[in-house]
Design a protein that fits this description.
By secondary structure, the chain is of the alpha+beta class. The chain has a domain at 25-63 and 114-205: NADH Oxidase (3-Layer(aba) Sandwich), CATH 3.40.109. It is 46% helix and 11% strand. Strands 1, 2, 3, 4 and 5 form a 5-stranded antiparallel sheet that branches.
Length: 227
């Protein structure tokens, strides 16, 4: 007999299958409590990470003036690129892809209005020091990328799940990484912190979410070897 009762699998499965990228249905008018954000980050901190070093920092932006600056920086990195992608998809008749591109542009143009913006950062300098400075500072980020992302993205995903379980919507965006120094200057983020994502956080509009269509999992599994 297990020490703890089993999970309610119906609830867990619904959480896993309905946590999705929310862009158009973010409520831009309803505030998000700081306490809720802190609790979700606390839950995320239990995620596995290299050596349990927890070399992450969560930059949480809820000041309207700073959100405006962050939102504009994100928009400038996102809209021109995705607009070109949208034109290519429309020309190719890829309506499903075009629909996603339109939703990305929609959010980018409104990112400044999202109540809370969260930037999870990985402390490259701390990790480099933990390895005895075996990685030179000029190569640290490139050399450590696999371990870095493996250490922080489980926490990022747990954060998204925790938000969903509390009725909040979000999506993991990375477009601003094309100019991390600009975002670092706006928020005073050290250059040794790698900005792994920018996550908008808001309540959602409309009804509940349903699972998105997915290819049959049997078509994606390779048992033992690919022949």
């Amino acid at each position: 007999m297990t020490a703890n009762p089993p999970f309610d699998l119906d609830t867990v499965d619904r959480l896993l299958t309905t946590t999705k990228a929310v862009r158009r249905r973010l409520d831009l008018t309803r505030p998000v409590d700081r306490e809720t954000v802190v609790e979700c980050i606390r839950l995320a901190s239990y995620s596995p990470n290299a050596s349990n070093a927890q070399e992450w920092h969560w930059v949480v932006v809820d000041d309207p003036e700073l959100r405006a600056l962050v939102g504009e920086q994100y928009r400038s990195c996102t809209v021109p690129v995705v607009t070109k992608m949208l034109a290519t998809k429309e020309e190719a008749g890829d309506e499903a892809g075009a629909r996603i591109s339109r939703s990305i542009i929609y959010l980018a143009e409104r990112m400044a209005e999202v109540p809370v913006l969260v930037i999870p950062c990985y402390d490259v300098a701390a990790a480099s020091a933990r390895y005895g400075n075996l990685i030179g500072p000029e190569r640290a980020t490139a050399e450590m990328e696999p371990g870095m992302f493996a250490s922080i993205y489980p926490a990022v995903w747990s954060f998204l799940l925790a938000l969903r379980s509390r009725g909040l919507g979000s999506t993991l965006t990375t477009a601003h990484q094309s100019d991390q120094p600009a975002m670092a200057e706006i928020l005073g983020i050290p250059s040794t912190w790698f900005q792994t994502a920018l996550i908008p956080v808001a309540h959602t509009t409309g009804g509940d979410f349903k699972p998105s269509p997915r290819a049959p999992v049997e078509d994606t599994i390779v048992w033992n070897t690919h022949s």
